[in-house]
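Lab notes, practical 5.
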Amino acid sequence: MNEPSTTLGTLDADWTTTTRNPLGSAAAALGILGESVALREVVSLAQSVASTNAVVLLRGETGTGKERIAGLIHALSTRGDRRFVKFNCTAVPAGLLESELFGHERGAFTGAVVQRIGRFELAHGGTLLLDEIGDLPPELQPKLLRVLEEQEFERLGSTRTIRTDARIMAATNRPLEDLVDAGVFRADLYYRLNVFPIELPPLRDRREDIPPLVRHFAAEHTRKLGTRIESIPAAVMDALVRHPWPGNVRELENAIHRAVILSRGSATLELPPLDGRGKGDRSPAAQPTTLEAVTRVHILAALREATGVVAGPQGAAARLGLKRSTLHSKMQRLGIGPADLAAAGRSLPRACAGPSASPLAH
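Output from the prediction step:
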């Protein structure tokens, strides 16, 4: 007996119109597809805040579509015809972040041979999305807070104050409240960002959205690859709906892309083996989940950046915005000792540490 299947049909045309997509054409145009109550609530919040200039904090696991929702808010706002600037706070080394965000003047530092416009200037009149905001270094957090409160900043190497009219949104998959408790994220910055939070649900909590997403991704990648896949077997769709998708929508799209490639020469979608890891199956080296683990990771990261130096203007305590005695107390409680300091001092080339940067300097 033939197995029932889902026909791709004219899915692209149907789901990019308000007739079939209950989220509206603006959402569909950005690839926001589904019909679950959870997703409808997210889109409803985005529509409500779009007409304002309120700071929006988008929260959710990796791959849940935070950037797409930010794009929807921008598209529906009065700034929709202006620039939408996206910046990932982990995409550049920490030493270059200030220049990337605020710009610099020629000669501001070694290698600054020309003036550079930062992201806040580029987004003037439009929208700036700061992705991975939970990873913003402590030394830059006061400067971001100033922009949020006063809408002004200076380029590196300049004393001239620049006003900005950029609408700010931020996104993170980190537990900001835990980072505040750990002393690595400023409480005042957290409250300033948390004006209008939107929590994006993981795909496993809205499984009814998986079939339309599968059909959309299959149709899209079939068109791009020039293949002739016409249907999705019911068993394939059932397997996709039951999968836990720890990487959420991004992982689902990658799986469908791979399936379309491997299905060349077939009229039906053939599903390769899926990654069997569930949400709780990640290796111990993945993101820490307890407050103490988060705190220890951030302290060790600051020690590495400071080449093992605790005190001083460039030491780990200053980078974390803590008193030296407070940092020592936290290190003692978390079991961070001389061996960790020495390892941090060896983590960068010796030339980067400077002549007085002893790994055990306190």
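Observations recorded by the TA: The two ends are 76 Å apart (CA to CA). The chain has three domains: 25-106+116-199, 203-274, 291-353.
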